[in-house]
């Protein structure tokens, strides 16, 4: 492991351990996705994620993190809640959406990923919400696809925003791209340099190097990008009550290309569709 300025550069062996953390994170999210249904509580989803991580030999990244200490394994943000929702006894109803953010630690290395899931399936939510989920997840992959050795971190930002701006909004308005919450470097700590905004011009910021790992995470609303914080000091919700989506992956750069550490297949299928080199290590 080395440093370029304040950015952590990982060795191939360290990236392999990060892949273990990423796989556990991805497996926990898939277990949660399978459990999302009308009548389940976000606290029950939290228990499923924690059991998956701990039974796989990992430690939840979020539990006890920061100040005030986050009390759970996942962030569970429902409908107009954007990020950092605290799991509780709220019962999910058909037609809700829930954004689930999760992290795992293996041998001191972190993985971080998020999904947004419609409760009751795609048919249970309106066309506008389906579009919200589609364009947000696609913007994540657009950002991942923009990663190139020798490129700049803000190439990711420009690709995320560019994809969102290219997609028609159901009401003819604009997608609300959160500017105050960004992706980030990740590795021996959960949040590290550099910040990875979801908007802005490309060609700026640190150079993308072999051994860098970034958590890329667009957060988008159907309305305004203005937000508020609940009294719990964690939950962030849209100020205008518009619904929000959040998708995230941890991505490492190797000599061969991008390796999506939190995708179960390493991102190989999606990267192939984008025509982007797959950087998985054996």
Q: Could you give a quick summary of the protein structure above?
A:
The chain has 282 residues and is α+β, with helices and mostly antiparallel strands.
Secondary structure: helix percent: 25-40%
Strand element count:
17
Shape field: globular
Low-confidence stretches are none
N-to-C span: 19 Å
Cα Rg: 17 Å
State the strand order across the main sheet. 10-9-11-16-17
Can you walk through the features of this model?
With 282 residues, the protein is of the alpha+beta class. The chain is built from five helices and 17 strands. It has helices at residues 12-35, 42-55, 127-145, 153-166, 268-274, and strands spanning 2-4, 7-9, 59-60, 74-78, 81-83, 97-106, 109-118, 176-177, 183-185, 192-196, 213-216, 219-221, 227-229, 236-238, 244-246, 249-253, 258-260. The strands form five sheets. Strands 10-9-11-16-17 form a five-stranded antiparallel sheet. Helix 3 packs antiparallel against helix 4 (153-166). The radius of gyration is 17 Å and the shape is globular. 51% of the residues are buried.
């Amino acid at each position: 492991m080395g440093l370029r300025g304040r950015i952590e550069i990982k060795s191939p062996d360290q990236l392999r351990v990060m892949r273990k953390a990423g796989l556990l994170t991805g497996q926990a999210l898939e277990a949660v996705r399978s459990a999302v249904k009308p009548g389940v509580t976000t606290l029950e989803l939290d228990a499923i994620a924690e059991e998956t991580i701990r039974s796989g030999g990992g430690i939840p990244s979020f539990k006890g993190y920061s100040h005030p200490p986050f009390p759970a394994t996942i962030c569970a943000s429902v409908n107009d809640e954007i990020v950092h929702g605290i799991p509780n006894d709220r019962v999910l109803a058909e037609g809700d959406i829930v954004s689930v953010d999760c992290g795992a630690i293996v041998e001191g290395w972190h993985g971080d990923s998020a999904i947004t899931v419609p409760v009751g399936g795609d048919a249970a939510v309106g066309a506008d919400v389906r579009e919200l989920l589609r364009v947000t997840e696609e913007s994540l992959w657009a950002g991942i696809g923009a990663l190139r050795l020798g490129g700049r971190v803000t190439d990711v930002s420009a690709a995320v925003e560019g994809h969102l701006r290219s997609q028609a909004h159901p009401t003819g308005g604009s997608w609300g791209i959160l500017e105050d919450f960004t992706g980030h470097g990740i590795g021996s700590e959960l949040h590290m340099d550099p910040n990875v905004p979801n908007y802005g011009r490309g060609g700026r910021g640190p150079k993308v190097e072999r051994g860098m790992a970034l958590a890329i995470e667009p957060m988008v609303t159907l309305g305004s990008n203005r937000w508020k914080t609940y009294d719990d000091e964690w939950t962030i919700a849209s100020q205008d009550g518009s619904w929000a989506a959040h998708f995230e992956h941890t991505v490492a750069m190797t000599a061969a290309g991008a390796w999506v550490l939190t995708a179960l297949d390493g991102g190989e299928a999606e990267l192939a569709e984008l025509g982007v080199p797959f950087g998985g290590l054996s």
